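Structure first, sequence second, as always.
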């Protein structure tokens, strides 16, 4: 027994894709939609209920252009190198991902809204042993995913990106992000072109699940 329509709920959960080529670059995103989806995101869990998340919503064209430059600088030759690698030996899905990622990198400035999720962090910017690092990342990415799901439910698309983080300091200077606040990504947001997204092919569950012990 559930109060949810499982068909709809599961469709939302299984068809929220990383949207790049089907971002509609011609339609502005209403700020009210971003606000509503962020309100939903704030219901996500966070370690100790600290709610250290901070969100920067950028729609100003010059700032988007600067962020896109920083993104491309962060990407460096990575996308081209990977595209060459998958062309040589990867599967069709890998090929689509890198083709699509390059498309986005070239047009990021044209995506109407960039959302930069951040988290207040006292950690050094490198993985640390034990529970601190998972706790920190676990206190922001569930909220980011909720934001993306809420967008999808409303006809908007997004993609979690991290390539600009290699030049995170330049983005922090551009956006005035204070010390002690860590950016964890950049999420471009736009209406989607069509809404018929499908579940992706994944490794089978049997390959990745261990019952009772490894
Ligand atoms: C931690 C993380 C970082 C990612 N960084 C980027 C990125 O910098 N640029 C990009 O285009 N996609 C990025 N992606 C999207 C992945 O390529 C995408 O999730 C993956 O190919 C699976 O596709 P799907 O989300 O449509 O199922 C990232 C995803 C995750 C989870």
């Amino acid at each position: 027994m559930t109060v949810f329509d499982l068909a709809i709920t599961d469709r939302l959960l299984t068809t929220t894709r990383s949207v790049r080529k089907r971002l509609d670059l011609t339609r502005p995103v209403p700020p009210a939609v971003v606000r509503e989806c962020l309100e939903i995101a704030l219901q996500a869990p966070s370690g100790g209920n600290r709610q250290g998340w901070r969100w920067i919503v950028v729609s100003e064209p010059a700032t988007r252009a600067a962020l896109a430059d920083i993104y491309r600088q962060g990407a460096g030759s990575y996308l081209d190198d990977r595209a060459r690698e998958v062309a040589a030996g990867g599967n069709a899905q890998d090929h689509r991902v890198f083709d699509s990622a390059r498309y986005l990198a070239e047009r990021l400035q044209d995506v109407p809204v960039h959302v930069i999720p951040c988290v207040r962090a006292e950690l050094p910017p490198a993985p640390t042993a034990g529970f601190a690092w998972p706790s920190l990342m676990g206190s922001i990415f569930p909220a980011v995913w909720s934001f993306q799901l809420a967008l999808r439910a409303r006809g908007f698309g997004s993609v979690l990106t991290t390539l600009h983080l290699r030049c995170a300091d330049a983005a922090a200077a551009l956006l005035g992000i204070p010390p002690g606040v860590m950016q964890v990504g950049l999420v471009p947001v736009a209406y989607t072109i069509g809404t018929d997204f499908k579940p992706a092919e994944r490794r089978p569950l049997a390959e990745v699940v261990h019952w009772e012990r490894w």
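Margin note: The chain has a mean pLDDT of 94.
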